[in-house]
Design goal:
Rossmann fold; homodimer; alpha/beta; 8 helices
Chain lengths: 223, 223
């Protein structure tokens, strides 16, 4: 197993993130690379969900992962060991989010020219990552059952910028006051087009539906 | 029941946060007001823990709560209704944390001169709030069992600036791979003096110990 490459990324000095993001997205379209930006709170199960998903799709698309973290590389090692998928670690140097320029610095270190799909696991945070367009083709986020069904009320921007909301840890629904119907209603107040998909990364339930959605997205992007 | 006062707070233009924080802390000392800064991820149970704690201490100290949120006032209403404690809502205008000047703006709106204790519920976020000294006498944080025992490795700064780590939702320990001993070891890697206290805000278990600690802190601060 190849070691994890750790990239110390820096914030852009130009600070025109929207323009940078649009430019990056156009380049990705030209090159036929689909970039998914995956966000969530700390501990919602991003890494476990990713591992399940990657093992379902890795024979169908050429994929790599960029793991963004403040300074550890725990998740990157775990993903590469469990899937064999090339994974790089982006260290944000304390920054609470990634912008488009930081994302581009990461893409320069994966062999993007040989890939169909790059998944960016953003910093665990429901606030700042929602404010910065990374240049991704699509934003997805994971809300886990223990966090509560009211999160779309409290972190409105996050839910309005995501098109796919994975509701994870459905295996513990009996132990928490989490109303999936109410949660879906709150999500749709923020983004009427968002899809709410219950999954359980631990058992794998629902992850095949997410994997299928992702493969269709990649296919459509490459047209 | 009095309605919730909502304060739209603004970031300081001077940006010398450390100086502002020290100044605020000295003023609080002079006035005999203890300010606790409570932080956590979204959905870790800050509000439920606060309600339990307030109901245990409200006859012993004069206390008020400042609830910081991006833009909802769900938690402030819940706390005031469940405890009768004066609660104000701080809207951060999208900001992911509070600094000392923002905290001061909040304190100007609670009748701090008549209080022994003010509890600040910071924005749900393990990254940014750790970077900004609010001027509080002490930082505490809640890590909930479903988030995982590895969080001190992934969000080092948060765990190094907190002296009291409440490990919440211990009622669901049987359903998650959470090792309390391992977690405590990771916390002490970041801050050897931090106290790790398991609680269950839902059942009340351990919250009395936290309440006792808080009362002792207030008492010592006023000497």
């Amino acid at each position: 197993m190849e070691g994890i490459k750790v990239i110390e990324i820096k914030k852009s000095v130009f600070e025109d993130n929207e323009k940078d993001a649009e430019k990056l997205r156009k380049e990705l379209k030209t090159k036929g690379i689909y970039l998914l930006n995956l966000m969530s709170s700390p501990g919602s199960g991003k890494t476990t969900t990713l591992i399940r998903t990657l093992n379902l799709i890795k024979d169908k698309v050429r994929v790599a992962v960029m793991e963004a973290d403040i300074d550890s590389d725990v998740d990157a090692v775990k993903i590469q060991e469990a899937t064999g998928i090339p994974t790089i670690q982006l260290h944000t140097g304390g920054m609470c989010h990634l912008d488009a320029e930081m994302t581009r610095q990461g893409l320069d270190h994966v062999d993007a020219g040989q890939l169909d799909l790059v998944i960016l696991e953003n910093v665990g945070n429901l606030v700042c990552p929602a404010e910065f367009d990374t240049g991704s083709c699509r934003n997805a986020m994971i809300l886990s059952v223990p966090e509560g069904d009211d999160k779309p009320l409290k972190y409105p921007l996050m839910f309005s910028v995501c098109d796919m909301i994975l509701v994870n840890k459905t295996d513990v629904l009996p132990y928490f006051d989490f109303d999936l119907e109410k949660c879906t209603r709150y999500v749709h107040m923020r983004n009427p087009h968002a899809r709410v998909l219950p999954i359980c990364a631990k058992t794998g339930e629902g992850v095949d539906v997410f994997a299928q959605w992702l493969l269709q997205e990649v296919c459509a992007w490459k047209q």
